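re: ur question from yesterday

yeah so i grabbed the chain u mentioned. its 287 aa long if i counted rite. heres the sequnce exactly as i have it in my notes:
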Amino acid sequence: MLRISILGKILLFIFILSISACVPRALIRYYPKIIEKTLTKKIALIEADHMNGFLNDESILELIEAKVQYGYGYLLEQADRIYDEDYSEAQIFQNNAQDVFLNAIQLSAKQLNDRHNQFNNWLNYPTTINTAFTKDDVPYLYWLAAAYGGMISSTRANPKWVVHLPKIGILLEKSISIDPNWNNGALYSAMISYTVSRPDPPTNIRETAQVFLDKAIASSKNLDASPYISFAENISIKEQNKKEFLALTNYVLDMDISQNPNLKLSNIISQERARWLQSKLEDYFYE
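ran it thru and got these C-alpha cells back, copy pasting raw so excuse formatting
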C-alpha cells in the first residue's frame, strides 16, 4: 500500500488562496504549479516587507498561512504523488517542507507568545495554566496546529516531532471551544484527521470522526468537499472500506462547487485529490 502520513494529509483541503474564485477549471487542473507560483510570490512579497520593516500582525498571519498552505498544497502533495516512484525526489520535497513548516511554527509561536506571555507554558501544561484566548487568537492557534501536523508528516513521523502530536489536539480543541464554526468548519475537518492519529484515541474512532464530519458539513452548509476527503482518507482507507471510500470520493466529484465562491478553489482541489485517490485504488485497498 502507499504510505499514508501519521496525520493523513491533515488540512490539505484548506487552501483559501489569493486566486479569484472564477479561475477557469481547466487551468486549475494544473493547480500544484499554480499553488507553487502564487504562494512563493506571496511569501516573497511579505518577507520583502519584513526586511523593510513594514511587517505588522496581519501580514505575519498572512505569511504563516501562506507558508503552511505552500507546505501542504505543493511540497507535501508533490512528495506524496511521487514517493513510490522517485523516493529521492520526494525526499527533496519533504526536506523543503520541513524548513517551511519549522519557520511557520516559530512565527506562530512567537505571535501567540507576544499576545499571551504564558502561551508556551499553557501549551505544555494546558490544565494548569489559565490563558484568556479570544476569537482573534483562533487563526494563530489553527495554523500552529497545521504547522505541527505538517512537520510530523514531512519528517515521516520522526519521534523528535511525534512527541508534539498532543499539542495539535490541544490547539484544535481550544479553538473549537472559542469559535467552533470558524472558517466553514475547518476545525472539525482537522479533528477528523487528528482523531485517527492522536496518542489517546477514543474507544470508537469511527463514531468520533463521524461526529466531526457531521459538524464540518453543517458548518459549511454542505458546501465544502474537504471533510468528505478527510474521512475517506483517514477512516475508509484505515478500515479498508472500499465501498464507502468510493461513495465519498464520488460524492465529492459530483458536487456543485459553484455555490460558494469562497470555497470554489479549495473544492476544485478536493475534487482533484479525489480523482488521484481513485487512481490509486489498488494501492490503498487489498481487495
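noticed a couple things. Residues 87-115 form the longest helix (29 residues). also The mean pLDDT is 86.
anyway ttyl
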